[in-house]
Structure prediction request, 234 residues.
Amino acid sequence: MIRVYEKRFDGRKFDELRPVKMKVDVVPSADGSAVVEIGNTKVIASVFGPKPLHPKHLQNPEKGILRCYYDMMSFSVPERKRPGPTRRSIEISMVMKNALASTLLLEEFPKAVVDVFVEVYEANAGTRCASITAASLALADAGVPMRDLVSAVAVGKVGGMIVLDLTKEEEDHPEGATDIPIAMVGRSGKITALQLDGAITKEELKKALELGKKGCSILYEMQRKALKAKYGVR
Prediction:
């Protein structure tokens, strides 16, 4: 018998985000940086550039290059992670790059590179989404020319219910869970990243996407608020 998910493990409503905190300009040595905390998932992003790309044969004479690096610190999960890149971190790095690249005006700095480093220092699901959100915020803090900010959140199906911002406990639900990370450009609502892990019907997917867009819109306003706070703008 399928157990219907009637009440979330942490008591939230099905369409409610976990508590969120954001702050920019947290790494003095970086050109731009940001910390994003979504529940017990916490990440820090640092941006270096635009800067000349070396060796020169890697340069693009028509536009700049975006490079993204995602990693989880060894102590970020209960079972210690081995240091160094993994297949998962390489895949998420690519997802981040694809989610962010279309919002950057890379043509304004040919032959240059922008490096984005994201470190997860506490993980409880949704690390790729928190990383995309933090990376976009750090890029804006660095003054990299952008069309708009990108925010991201995971939405999915748990015990037959469509929920926003899954936790690790929900991902491990006894009846299984469907996880759908989604990244969206703030004003236009354009989706720049969409993944799906699990089974879901067409109607459920439509509902999940609408809920994901709602969550991204909330995070987008928080990103704007974090940037304004740096300069004392209300």
Observations:
- The two ends are 52 Å apart (CA to CA).
- The CA atoms of residues 159 and 175 lie 6 Å apart.
- The chain has one domain: 20-230.
- Strands lie at 20-24, 32-38, 41-52, 65-72, 112-122, 150-158, 161-164, 177-185, 191-194.
